[in-house]
Specification:
Chain lengths: 296, 361
């Protein structure tokens, strides 16, 4: 009867040894490789710090003009540009300018990092079903595992700071980009690809001339998702030393400062909306050729 | 020997073979090699699918496609037409057999050689156009040249020429989605012509178009061909189209060739009930030409009729002149035969079925 009442679990001693073993071997690993890994990320850190300083130290009107310019390039919509400018003015007026710039810096670097790894991975996945079958579960894990759990090894390896924060953000934000790149390339019309073959296109010509351009709307949806998710990750990343809007939110939670939390939270939301609208408008413009408009 | 043979061919007026397909088999499925055993043992397409779960795409195809002519391959849906034409530029690898083009077996080509072959020697027009939606008409037309890394200026010039030839001037900067189906296929045709390939592969190129537009496109193709003299392989499931543009017709059913011949041969002597059924509604007086029913002769009486004149025209000519006989002349105007009004009328009647042939489902 015992068997049914208590789950036949591993005995305590064994379990403790197992956990200890894993912990100590990972510690061992981080002791011997941690520095090397840190060195590897050194340039990234410099870039991040540089961008952050640039955004914070530059006179605010210039930054706003720069952002408005980007919004215009992305969306070609005066309404969106005006909305963006007003939003940033309000954010600044409520004293969140510096934090917003810090967040902007980390989001930009995280997005660039995600793009430079996510798109090649997506392409690789699209090339072979076997690679797809191998990578898909990894992506599932990355997306579903509670972020606090993978913060632990990241912190063990790299300590507390900007780079581990950045990596945590990327782990969380990269999967949709990989998935959508893969999907976009796989969805490219077989007949169009066959036409490229029939005219003697080689692998690169097909990839860069046909597959990627036609997958671009999907890839772009992935970039949009990545930006949104890294913004969502900002608060959690601030737990391990990322500056920006997340930090005040964290402080507000532990001290029950409602107004502080609300203001900074809203600033994150506003950033998210701006990023989303601008990048979606850009994505739509990429697909302009799909519509039958402009017939004359 | 070979040269002598070629010389004889020339003198006799036969044309050279451009594409020679020999003993070609294609089996689709997980293990085509072992399924081939069954096919060689004579298992039917149906049985192969039901008992061995492999699809017989093509069985023992042998065709000589002559240079500088339009060879039509015809058959119903699923008969293997697309599969066959894709073997000619090796978009599909055969399970067995040879595809020899200009005395070179393209199945022996390396990837690079094959790419060069596709870039320079054979181009293709697709049933559903398969244009690049993100490229303009100009960029689509220039695609083959872009692939060959030809300088932009030259590429634009050459493309412009063909855009004009297919009647699309003014649409250079439009995207395919902004064009009608007929216009899109003109782009498809221009794209294929721009590489100046000797071989043009057309897989049901006009099937997706409205009847009027289709006739239009056939006209464009025939006009271009009169001047370009390419080797064209044209796939269709439409007999009228086949008869209108084909110099030679090959009929395919369930992956096998069941008849090859000139349009005249097919209409006069259908190989079996399947083909007889195919041709029963054809306007025979328009398809059949004087030469197919003439009795060879050195001299003749009656009005001179060109050997390629449709019977329709010959009949109206004879009846308007009130005679019952005419003499057939070749291009040079030399008499080569004689036809009788009665024979012409007889030929226009629907044929009796050539009974001894196989039943078809
Ligand atoms: N990749 C493939 N895998 C399995 N079977 C295939 C494949 N491609 C073609 N087939 C089969 O081969 C046969 C011939 O197909 P094919 O597309 O060549 O016919 P078709 O004559 O071009 O028909 P349609 O007029 O519909 O285009 C069909 O039975 C088809 O189901
Ligand atoms: Mg087909």
């Amino acid at each position: 009867m015992d068997f049914f009442e208590a789950f036949p679990a591993m005995d305590r001693q064994g379990l403790r040894d197992l956990k200890k073993g894993i912990d100590s071997s990972f510690r061992e690993f981080s002791r011997s490789y941690g520095e090397g890994i840190e060195d590897f990320f050194e340039p990234l850190l410099h870039f991040l710090v540089w961008l952050e300083k640039l955004l914070i130290n530059a006179p605010w009107p210039i930054v706003i003009i720069g952002i408005a310019g980007l919004a215009w390039i992305g969306s070609r919509s005066w309404k969106l540009v005006a909305g963006t400018v007003i939003a940033f003015l309000v954010i600044g007026y409520f004293g969140m300018w510096k934090d917003t710039m810090a967040t902007l810096a980390i989001i930009s670097v995280a997005t660039l990092l995600c793009i430079s790894f996510g798109i090649p991975f997506g392409i690789w996945m699209a090339r072979s079903d076997r690679v797809q079958a191998a990578i898909t579960p990894i992506l599932d894990v990355m997306q579903t595992i509670p972020s606090f759990v993978y913060l632990i090894p990241v912190v063990m390896l790299l300590g507390i700071g900007k780079v581990p924060g950045l990596i945590a953000v990327c782990i969380y934000a990269i999967p949709p980009l990989v998935r959508l790149t893969n999907l976009g390339i796989r969805l490219v019309d077989k007949e169009v690809l066959e036409a490229a073959d029939a005219f003697g296109a080689d692998y690169r010509q097909k990839l860069f001339g046909v597959q990627i351009p036609l997958a671009l709307p999907n890839i772009f949806a992935g970039v949009n998702q990545t930006i949104m998710m890294s913004l969502a990750m900002v608060v959690i990343a601030s737990m391990i030393g990322v500056k920006g809007l997340g930090l005040p939110v964290l402080r507000a939670v532990s001290n029950q400062y409602l107004a502080l939390g609300l203001l900074n939270g809203l600033a994150i939301v506003i950033l998210a909306i701006i990023f989303d609208r601008v990048s979606q408008a850009y994505g739509r413009r990429l697909q302009a050729h799909r519509e039958g408009s402009g017939h004359d | 020997m070979v040269d002598a043979y070629k010389l004889i061919e020339k003198v006799v007026g036969m044309t050279d073979t451009k594409i020679k397909i020999k003993n070609l088999y294609k089996v689709f499925g997980a293990d085509p090699k072992s399924a081939m055993e069954q096919v060689r043992n004579g298992v039917s397409k149906q049985d192969l699918l039901e008992k061995h779960s492999h699809v017989l795409g093509l069985r023992d195809i042998n065709i000589d496609i002559p240079e500088k002519g339009i060879s039509v391959i015809m058959g119903l849906s699923g008969s293997g037409k697309s599969t066959l034409i894709r073997h000619i530029n090796r978009l599909i690898e055969p399970t067995e057999g040879q595809v020899v083009i200009d005395d070179i077996d393209i199945l022996g080509m390396s990837i690079e050689e094959l790419r060069a072959f596709r870039r320079n020697k054979a181009s293709m027009v697709f049933q559903k156009f398969a244009l690049f939606p993100h490229r303009t008409v100009m960029q689509n037309t220039a695609y083959g040249l872009t692939i060959q890394k030809i300088a932009e200026k030259e590429a634009i010039e050459r493309s412009q020429h063909w855009i004009e030839r297919v009647g699309l001037s003014g649409f250079e900067n439009h995207y395919p989605a902004q064009l009608s189906g007929g216009m899109q296929q003109r782009v498809g045709l221009a794209r294929a012509l721009t590489t100046d390939a000797e071989i043009l592969l057309m897989d049901e190129a006009f099937s997706a178009l409205d009847p009027l537009i289709r006739t239009d496109m056939q006209g464009i193709l025939l006009d271009l061909q009169a001047e370009l003299n390419k080797t064209i392989v044209f796939i269709t499931h439409d007999l009228d189209e086949a008869l209108r543009i084909g110099d030679g017709i090959t009929i395919l059913r369930d992956g096998e060739i069941i008849q090859q011949g000139s349009p005249q041969d097919i209409v006069m002597k259908p190989a079996d009930d399947y083909i007889a059924d195919f041709i029963k509604d054809v306007n025979r007086s328009r398809v059949l030409q004087v030469r197919s029913i003439m009795v060879p002769a050195e001299s003749g009486i009656g009005p001179h009729l060109d050997q390629n004149m449709p019977l329709e025209d010959a009949l109206s000519r004879l009846s308007s002149e009130g005679v019952s006989e005419g003499s057939v002349v070749d291009q040079a105007g030399k008499v080569i035969g004689q036809i009788a009004l009665a024979a012409a009328v007889e030929a226009i009647r629907r044929p009796e079925r050539s009974s001894q042939d196989l039943q078809y489902r």
